[in-house]
Request: fold
Amino acid sequence: MRAVVQHEYGEAGVLRLEEVELPAVGDDELLVQVLAAGVNPGDWDLLRGRPYVLRPMTGLARPRHGVLGLAVAGRVVDRGRAVSRLGAGDEVYAEVGRGGFAEYVAVPERAAAAKPSSLTPAQAAGVPVSGVTALQALRDVAKVRSGQRVLVIGASGAWAPSRCRSPRAWAPR
Reply:
């Protein structure tokens, strides 16, 4: 399969389109054909290897994992033995942590949710990181309630806090 790969830290010029192996699917994972991937500030930080304090986790001299992409929307093509909620053909969106800039990505079932039919894959790919950050800011921090008005300025990107890994946080209610 094809993927956008980085072998060194840097700007966008270090990215290359390459053939890589199809990801193995664990017992609790889905194999998702990526139809759209979100591009988030976190991807940019990982590409550049900044902040430097993260390098012990991401790779000191060069990236430990060459395929970026934190959020995707796509179609399930296979699933592990322990997966029960989603199956082949289901359209999903997910925060994948890495690997989303590829044709296929392995996704833990707990990190995926059924994509609402009202969203295109491109729209859905923005939900797991940027959408969740906006939701948390409005609902949890600002405590906005029904009937209140909000002015949004500079809605240009976001980074999802590590505490938000559950699809329940961003699945339609």
User: Anything to note?
Assistant: The helical segments are 41-48, 55-58, 121-124, 127-141. The beta strands are 2-6, 15-19, 29-38, 71-79, 91-95, 104-108, 112-114. Residues 2-169 form a domain with the Quinone Oxidoreductase; Chain A, domain 1 fold (CATH 3.90.180.10).
